[in-house]
Amino acid sequence: xxxxxxxxxxxxxxxxxxxxxxxxxxxxxxxxxxxxxxxxxxxxxxxxxxxxxxxxxxxxxxxxxxxxxxxxxxxxxxxxxxxxxxxxxxxxxxxxxxxxxxxxxxxxxxxxxxxxxxxxxxxxxxxxxxxxxxxxxxxxxxxxxxxxxxxxxxxxxxxxxxxxxxxxxxxxxxxxxxxxxxxxxxxxxxxxxxxxxxxxxx
Length: 202
Fold this sequence. Notes:
The protein is mostly helical. The protein contains eight helices and two strands, in the order H-H-E-E-H-H-H-H-H-H.
């Protein structure tokens, strides 16, 4: 327990590089002698409050490994020094991130059913929605604020899911927007209905 608390009850690191180089990180996501201890980390930037998820290779992460390889190759191909303002640790950070997202492959399922393309797309959109929900306030708390807050949350989620499908999965923007609406609206509606029902029975 003491090892896990060495960076505080809510772990804090001075930089992304410090996190990726830490024993804490290796024990959690890249232990080397077994499966990771969780699906990933939610990381918040102290500088601007932005949040993102870092997942290992056993989770669904779309084209992230390929995108990292492209960035690393692009930086390696520079014939001059790094552009002004770019952190010199960036190439090393990208290499470390690539290691995290490729270091673990779960056992393959015994059989894999073939599903229609639309079902696969919906599954990817739902996984992105789940990730987006983990980075925002509890939906039920938002419902408490009224219809305007609920509608604003829906608009945010539709935009966030569509953007992540384009960024992480290489989707066409139009298809991403359509699938995002298709999964977000029913999911939020179902949660809202369950919330209203729980209030009426209390």
